[in-house]
Amino acid sequence: MTADIFDVNKILKKYEYKDSSLIPILQEVQKLNEEKYISEEMAKYIAAEMKISKTRIYEVITFFSALNDKPKGKYFIQLCNSTVCEITDKDLIENALVSELGIQVGETSQDKMFTLEYTPCFGACDVSPAMRVNKVVYGNLTESKIKSIVSKLRGDTHE
């Protein structure tokens, strides 16, 4: 499902088309899209309605890791690449994710089930290495925990 113009207009009206509300506007519009992103067509529409440049829209979308300009998988896996996670076996966890998912960082699986990306620190340093799947934080990760988490997300009943 893609964002409906009627719903987008409601969001724009709610924030009175204010440039200062661009981030919450984009967050709400993104939530309307099942694939968790803001399409180029939608970015153009929002820019036109708010009377701001498309460049301004893309500056915001590409700056904030919570906003996306490309479709994401059902499970959006964000691997923390902060300094703390880097020194607590982030590379080992990344290799386990790449192996289990069959995709590289920055890719979405062909079945649109998983997207794997890096993200800056999201405040889970006490349980690093950590990742977020959609909005759920998983910490103290090991290779076996990665296998178990991915298996559960796939709906496998046997591990």
UniProtKB/TrEMBL annotation:
Pfam families: 2Fe-2S_thioredx. CDD domains: TRX_Fd_NuoE. Its cofactor is [2Fe-2S] cluster. SUPFAM superfamilies: Thioredoxin-like. Keywords: 2Fe-2S, Iron, Iron-sulfur, Metal-binding. Belongs to the complex I 24 kDa subunit family. This is NAD(P)H-dependent oxidoreductase subunit E. It comes from Psychrilyobacter piezotolerans. The lineage of its organism: Bacteria, Fusobacteriati, Fusobacteriota, Fusobacteriia, Fusobacteriales.
